[in-house]
Amino acid sequence: MFERKFDLEEKYHMLIDLFVSSLFLIYSFIVNAGIRISGLYMDDLYMWSTYGEDSFINYVFPFKSTRFRPVYWFTAWLELGIIRNNITWIVVFNIIFAAALAICIYIYAKKLSGSRIVAILLAVVFLSSRFSYYNISQLLGFMEALCLAFLLGILYLLYTYISKEGMENNLYIAVILYLLISFTHERYMVLLPLFIYAIFIKKGKALNYIYPVAACGFIQLIRFIFIGTISPAGTSHTKVADTFNIKDAVKNAISHVLYMIGINDGPEHLNGVPWADTALIIKYSVGFSILVLITIFSLYIYKLIKNIKKKHSFHDSISISLFYLIAIVLCIMSSSVTIRVELRWVYGPFVCALLLLAHVYGEIRRLKLVNANNMLDMDFNNYMPLALVILWCVSILPMDLYAHGKYNKVYIYQYQSRYNSLADVSFGKYKDEIFDKDIYIIGNYYGMKQSTADTFFKVFDKNKKAEGLSVHLIDSYKDIGQIGQHMIVL
Q: Whole-model pTM?
């Protein structure tokens, strides 16, 4: 079989990419330093507790659940099989996967922009984003991260299908990824119009329209069989069909856009630091980044208008720009139909926006204002766009890094902090000796039910039983009686 040989220059660029990728991994650990999981709670605890108790089939393909996410549940089954009771590994795994996503964004953005520097900056912005909080700090964060991986795959495959000849196989693979992402999180079922647009722009065969539409129909059929409805569930145990109204959806969509440009448009318990409470210097930095962003897109539009007579270049550039804009709009729509906007939902459209920016930069460099031999135009193409992208990245990063320091105000982190504390003062202190103790917890600081208390400590037992341990939730130390050596009072 023929093996391709790489020339010296290709090897050189591969080595640089490998070095840059290693830097992303290091930075991923640095920017997420301090995030840890010592104890599980709520959805994470439920995911862990049902693993091993349910059969593989029931765990991955549950009937009559409010959600149907077999692709994620299968990957969770694999992940938990590796982690078992070493739950501190969860954050490490999530950080490494985030670095892998950054590498994919780097490779993709480099192809779109034609610039390694721009690609590196956009990948760093991705890793630094405040939208990553859930992906890193929760067991279920891998579900959101896995969706981003599938989303990147769909975008890249459809982009190459549109922009190159003889790439129809990429369309078919993208349809498979559409099935996978929809069975990872139902939010992404909304991507169907993106496929229709790609086929339309490509002027593909009429038969090609059938594949994504059939995939969407198959998704709805399977969802109906397993959960009895095709309507997606909302957040906080709500149903989209019951809570949806156009006014709130528009308001949520606007919040998405504001979040994406650096403005936290929501309450403290959802974003850690509302815009009104944001430090003034950070506000100035965000305001400057918005002006830079407007300048970049204004320059792009100006160059498009100047090249409008070159129909081929104009059409291709607009088509790809609309492709990413449609992806952004669809991702925003999918998470605007429920009762509120959470930061983790903005990550999907934000990734699409980063790729749009990479495309716009590449087009600004490619489109010429005047004759290509004009020195002024060459200097403008070479330096001005890069300076603008660098300015945007430098001015948007302070907001994200600032927000990282406010994570403790987000409701998920408040709960996680409490359960980390419970793990630290119990298993962290007594190790396996705790399984022969009676634990008394005074007050309701942890806000948990008896069933949660009993399950919580099973996580630390290699046998997942903690049979010698009993947990008592009490109101006062007077309910204990005489304290013995077999007792732990918290």
A: 0.93
